[in-house]
Write a structure and sequence with these properties.
Largest sheet: 6 strands, mixed
Radius of gyration: 35 Å
Organism: Arthrobacter psychrolactophilus
Main location: membrane
Number of helices: 21
Helix content: 55-70%
Protein name: ABC transporter
Pfam families: ABC_membrane, ABC_tran
Oligomer: single chain
CATH architecture of the largest domain: Up-down Bundle
GO molecular function: ABC-type oligopeptide transporter activity; ATP binding; ATP hydrolysis activity
Bound molecules: adenosine-5'-triphosphate
Distance between the termini: 29 Å
CATH topology of the largest domain: ABC transporter transmembrane region fold
Number of strands: 10
C-alpha cells in the first residue's frame, strides 16, 4: 500500500511532541548525560596538550605525567558511566511511550469502520503496530538523542580545533561543505527508499498472514509452489530495496569518513609546517589531532544516525496514516437512550453502495422499505449477490446507509450510541470467527457487554445459549466448555463453529437478532431444532435471517424478497410461493442440501467425525459474531 507523504521531517517529528511531553525530563537528563559524555571525550585531548607541553620540557619530573595519566583514566571511566546513565534515564520512559502509542493504535484500529478494514491489508496494520513502533522506540532512546549530541560534539570539537589553530580548523571545515551537500541528496533518496521498504515489509506480512490462514486451500489446490514463488518475488523486491538503501548509506558513510580523513592528512602536513615555523606548539598539534580523532567518530556516526532519523520519520508517517484515518461510523453527539427495546425494525428508503464502488454504478440497495414487527422472524431472500448481507450489515452499523433511515423502535439507529445499538443487536455470520479462547469465553463474548458478571448468571447464559444453538457437543470436548478452540485451539467442523457463533449471538440476549445464513452448515433436522428453540426462547426477539435454504425460509413468520436493490414482496412463504414468480425462481435456485452433516452423531452422544476436521478460518466482519 503505497502512500504519498508530503510532510517534512520536522512536521512529522513534531507530532511526537504530545507523546514526549510527559517524559521530557528523563529525556532531558538522558540527553545531558550523553552530552556530558561527549564533553568528557573532548576534554581528554586538552589533557594531552598539557601533558605534552609539560612532560616534554627538559627538567620537569615525571610527577605531572602520572597525574595526567590518572586524570585521563578517570575521565575514561566517567565517560563510560555517563553513557550508561543515558540508557538508564531513557529506557523505561521510551518503552512506556511505545506501549502507549501501540495501545492507542490498537484501540483506534478497533474503532475504525469495516470499510477501513476492507481497504487495508492486515500485514500493513501488523507491521505498523509492531515494527514501526519498535523502530520509533529505538530512535527516541538512541537516534534522536545521539543525533543532537553528535551534531553538538562536532560543532564544539571543530570550535576547539579552531581555537588551537584556525589554519588547521579551516582545512577540516573545508571537508564539511561537500558532506552537507551530499547529506541533502542522501536525505531525499534514503527517505524514499525507507518508505518503500517499510511498505513492502507490510505487504509481505499480509502475504504471510493470508497464506497461513489459507493454508488448507493452498494445499488442497496444490498451489503451494505458486504461493512460494509469489512470496519469493515479493521478498526479492524487498531485498532489492534494502540493498539500495544499504548502498546509498554505504556511499554516504564513505564520503563522511573519507573527506575528514583526507582533511586530516592535509592537516598533518600543514600542522608540521606550522610547528617547524614556530607558529604552533607541539602540545597544540597533538591535542588538535586527538580532538580530530574524537570528532571523527561523531562525523562517521552522522550517516547512520541521519538514516535512522529518516526511517523513523517514515515509521511515524505510516503510524499517523492509520491514526489520522477518520472513523466514518461514530456515536451521535447526543445519543438517545432506549430503556426497553421492543425490537421493531424499520428500513425506510434505504440506499447503500460500498464506499469503493465505481462511480456511475447504481446503488446496491436502491430504496429498501421494510418493517419487522417486534418479535417477528423475517427471512430475507434474494439471488446471490443481491445485497442481502449488505443489508444485514447496516443494522449493527458495520456500514452506514448512503441515504434513508433504519430505525429501531422508531429511533434512527444513528441516534443511538454504538455500544447501545450493538448491545441490542446481535449478529451471527455464515463465516464464523472463533477466537483462541475457551468455548465458554467465545460464547460469553457478547454477554460480557450486557454486564452479566456474576458467575451464576454467566453459567446460566452459557448453558441456555449452547442448548438453544444445539451446541451441546461442547460438553463432550476434552475439557468441556473450557476447551481451547479457535485458531490456536481445537479445530471444529463448519457446523460446530456455526453453532458456537450462534450461541454467542444468543448469549448476548439481544432485542434484535441478525443472522446471515448462520445455519447453512447444519443438516435440515438440526436446523429445524435450532429454529424451534430460537422461537421458544427468543419469543420476544425480532429476528432477521438471510436464508439460503427453503427449509429455513419456511420456518420464518414472513419472508421479504430482495430484488434489484428493493424489497419487491413481503408475505408468508406460502403466499409468496403462490403469487410471486421471482420468489419461486429464487427458491428453486436455493439448495436444500446441508453442507455439513455433523449433528446426528453428536445427538446420539457419539463423538463427531468432523471433530478432528480442520476447516478454514475466516475473517469475521464484526459485532457480535
Ligand atoms: N466490501 C465490499 N466492497 C465492495 N463490494 C462488495 C463488498 N462486499 C460485497 N460486495 C459486493 O456487493 C454485492 C452484494 O454482496 P452481498 O454479500 O451483500 O450479496 P448477498 O446477497 O449476501 O450474496 P450471497 O447470497 O451470495 O451471500 C456483491 O456484488 C459483492 O461483490
Amino acid at each position: 500500500m503505497a502512500h504519498k507523504n508530503t510532510t517534512t521531517l520536522f512536521q512529522t517529528l513534531s507530532r511526537l511532541a504530545p507523546q514526549l511531553h510527559p517524559i521530557r525530563w528523563p529525556l532531558f537528563w538522558g540527553f545531558l548525560s550523553a552530552l556530558a559524555a561527549s564533553g568528557v571525550a573532548l576534554a581528554v585531548p586538552q589533557i594531552y596538550r598539557i601533558l605534552v607541553n609539560t612532560a616534554l620540557v627538559p627538567g620537569n619530573g615525571t610527577g605531572a605525567l602520572w597525574v595526567g595519566a590518572g586524570v585521563v583514566l578517570l575521565l575514561g571511566v566517567l565517560e563510560a558511566g555517563l553513557i550508561s546513565l543515558r540508557r538508564q534515564f531513557v529506557i523505561v520512559p521510551v518503552t512506556t511511550v511505545e506501549t502507549r502509542m501501540r495501545t492507542s493504535f490498537y484501540a483506534h484500529v478497533q474503532r475504525l469502520a469495516v470499510e477501513f478494514h476492507d481497504r487495508w491489508g492486515s500485514g500493513q496494520l501488523l507491521s505498523r503496530a509492531m515494527s514501526d513502533l519498535n523502530f520509533m522506540r529505538r530512535w527516541m532512546a538512541f537516534g534522536a538523542i545521539m543525533l543532537v549530541v553528535t551534531a553538538l560534539t562536532v560543532v564544539i570539537g571543530v570550535g576547539l580545533m579552531f581555537s588551537m589553530s584556525w589554519e588547521l580548523g579551516l582545512i577540516f571545515l573545508a571537508a564539511a561543505a561537500p558532506i552537507a551537500i551530499f547529506g541533502f541528496r542522501f536525505r531525499r533518496s534514503y527517505g524514499r527508499a525507507s518508505r518503500k521498504s517499510q511498505d513492502q515489509a507490510g505487504d509481505l506480512a499480509t502475504t504471510v498472514e493470508e497464506s497461513v490462514h489459507g493454508i488448507r486451500v493452498l494445499k488442497a489446490f496444490g498451489r503451494g509452489r505458486e504461493a512460494l514463488d509469489s512470496f519469493e518475488e515479493q521478498a526479492q523486491e524487498l531485498q532489492a530495496t534494502e540493498i539500495h538503501k544499504a548502498k546509498s548509506l554505504a556511499v554516504f558513510s564513505l564520503v563522511v569518513t573519507l573527506l575528514p580523513e583526507l582533511a586530516l592528512g592535509a592537516g598533518l602536513v600543514v600542522g608540521i609546517l606550522l610547528v617547524s615555523n614556530g607558529r604552533l606548539d607541539v602540545g597544540a598539534l597533538v591535542a588538535f589531532f586527538a580532538t580530530a580523532a574524537v570528532v571523527a567518530g561523531p562525523v562517521e556516526a552522522m550517516g547512520p544516525l541521519l538514516a535512522m532519523t529518516f526511517a523513523a520519520k517514515t515509521a511515524l508517517d505510516r503510524h499517523f496514516e492509520v491514526i489520522d484515518s477518520t472513523n466514518t461510523i461514530t456515536d451521535p453527539e447526543h445519543p438517545v437512550q432506549l430503556d426497553t427495546v421492543r425490537g421493531e425494525l424499520e428500513f425506510r428508503d434505504v440506499h447503500f453502495r460500498f464506499p469503493d464502488s465505481p462511480e456511475g454504478t447504481t446503488d446496491l440497495l436502491n430504496g429498501v422499505d421494510l418493517t419487522l414487527q417486534a418479535g417477528e422472524t423475517m427471512a430475507l431472500v434474494g439471488i446471490t449477490g443481491s445485497g442481502k448481507s449488505a443489508l444485514l450489515n447496516l443494522v449493527p452499523r458495520l456500514y452506514d446507509v448512503s441515504s434513508g433511515t433504519i430505525s429501531l423502535d422508531g429511533v434512527d439507529i444513528r441516534q443511538l450510541s454504538l455500544n447501545d445499538l450493538r448491545r441490542h443487536v446481535s449478529v451471527a455470520f455464515e463465516d464464523t470467527t472463533l477466537f483462541s479462547h475457551s468455548v465458554r469465553e467465545n460464547v460469553l463474548l457478547g454477554a460480557a457487554e450486557q454486564g452479566e458478571s456474576s458467575p451464576e448468571l454467566n453459567e446460566a447464559a452459557l448453558e441456555r445459549a449452547l442448548e438453544v444453538a444445539q451446541a451441546g457437543f461442547a460438553h463432550t470436548l476434552a475439557d468441556g466448555v473450557e476447551t481451547l478452540i479457535g485458531e490456536e485451539g481445537l479445530s471444529l467442523s463448519g457446523g460446530q463453529r456455526q453453532r458456537i457463533a450462534l450461541a454467542r449471538a444468543i448469549a448476548a440476549r439481544p432485542a434484535l437478532l441478525v443472522l446471515d445464513d448462520p445455519l447453512s452448515a447444519l443438516d435440515v433436522n438440526t436446523e429445524e431444532r435450532v429454529m424451534d428453540r430460537l422461537r421458544e426462547e427468543l419469543a420476544g426477539t425480532t429476528t432477521l435471517i438471510v436464508a439460503h435454504r427453503p427449509s429455513t425460509v419456511s420456518m420464518a413468520d414472513r419472508v421479504a424478497l430482495l430484488q434489484d436493490g428493493r424489497i419487491t414482496a413481503v408475505g408468508t412463504h406460502a403466499e409468496l410461493l403462490a403469487g410471486n414468480e421471482h420468489y419461486r425462481y429464487v427458491l428453486a435456485s436455493l439448495t436444500e442440501e446441508p453442507r455439513d452433516l455433523d449433528s446426528d452423531a453428536e445427538l446420539s452422544g457419539e463423538p463427531s467425525d468432523e471433530l478432528g476436521a480442520t476447516p478454514l478460518t475466516h475473517k469475521d466482519q464484526g459485532a457480535g459474531a
